[in-house]
């Protein structure tokens, strides 16, 4: 069975973004229970040369919301603005990303799948893709990387989460009846 670009991307991103929303819930509860401050938790890094938890959440927005906007325009540049420093702003970003994914239709993505797509960082760096290859080989692995890194940071700090929290709502077969 052949999958459309929409089928290969959108349901998975919605699953990831839903799981990320759940991770934000768990992080907020951890802070509310006095186990860390919001600032401390959002600034936690897995390693000194990695960016902190807040950046990981922001990157889930970048590689879904901004990726789809970029696919529509044929151009994507990473958002270099500072990452938010509070849960509420991060939650708003994830809600926006979910809405953007929900608004992407199968017909729209199929109609632009073969279009040229440019990834650039100013005038210093450029990669040329098709929209389909950009979404599948760049944004898709990135959203998984950043959601897994957010999960890992929370686990490292002692937030009570497990694999189900990372997986989110799976699309299980519903029985007829």
Overview in brief:
Helices cover 62% and strands 8% of the residues.
Beta-strand content: 5-15%
Shape, principal axes of CA atoms? globular
Q: What's the Cα radius of gyration?
A: 17 Å
Helix content: 55-70%
Largest sheet: 3 strands, mixed
The top level CATH class name: Mainly Alpha
Helix tally equals 7
**Helix/strand/pairing category:** mainly alpha
Q: What distance separates the N and C termini?
A: 26 Å
| Mean pLDDT figure | 96
* Count of β-strands: 3
- CATH topology term: Four Helix Bundle (Hemerythrin (Met), subunit A)
**CATH architecture annotation:** Up-down Bundle
Task: Summarize the helix and strand pattern as letters.
Answer: HHHEHHEEHH
In total, how many domains does the architecture comprise? Answer: 1
CATH H-level name... which superfamily? dinb family like domain
Structure, explained:
This protein is mainly α. The protein has one domain: Four Helix Bundle (Hemerythrin (Met), subunit A) (Up-down Bundle), CATH 1.20.120. The protein is 62% helix and 8% strand. The chain has a three-stranded mixed beta sheet with strand order 1-2-3. Strand 2 and strand 3 form a beta hairpin. Helix 3 packs parallel to helix 4 and helix 3 packs antiparallel against helix 6. The chain is globular and about 50 Å long.
Structure characteristics:
about 180 residues, mainly alpha, Four Helix Bundle (Hemerythrin (Met), subunit A), three-stranded mixed beta sheet, 7 helices, about 60% helix, globular
Secondary structure layout plus pairing:
Elements: H1 5-32, H2 38-42, H3 53-73, E1 75-76, H4 87-103, H5 106-112, E2 116-121, E3 125-130, H6 131-157, H7 163-167
Parallel strand pairs: 1-2
Antiparallel strand pairs: 2-3
Helix pairs in contact: 1-4, 1-6, 3-4, 3-6
């Amino acid at each position: 069975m052949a999958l459309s670009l929409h089928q290969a991307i959108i349901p998975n991103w919605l699953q990831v973004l839903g799981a990320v929303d759940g991770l934000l819930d768990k992080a907020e509860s951890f802070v509310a229970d006095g186990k860390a401050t919001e600032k401390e938790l959002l600034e936690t890094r897995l390693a000194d040369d990695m960016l902190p938890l807040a950046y990981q959440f922001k990157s889930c927005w970048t590689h879904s919301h901004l990726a789809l906007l970029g696919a529509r325009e044929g151009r994507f540049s990473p958002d270099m603005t500072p990452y938010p420093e509070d849960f509420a702003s991060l939650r708003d970003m994830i809600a926006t990303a979910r809405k953007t994914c929900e608004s992407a239709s199968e017909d729209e993505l199929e109609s632009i799948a073969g279009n040229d797509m440019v990834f650039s960082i100013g005038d210093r760096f450029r990669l040329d893709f098709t929209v389909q290859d950009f979404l599948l080989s760049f944004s898709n692995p990135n959203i998984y990387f950043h959601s897994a890194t957010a999960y890992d940071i929370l686990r490292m700090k002692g937030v009570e989460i497990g694999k189900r929290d990372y997986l989110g709502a799976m699309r299980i077969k519903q029985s007829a009846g």
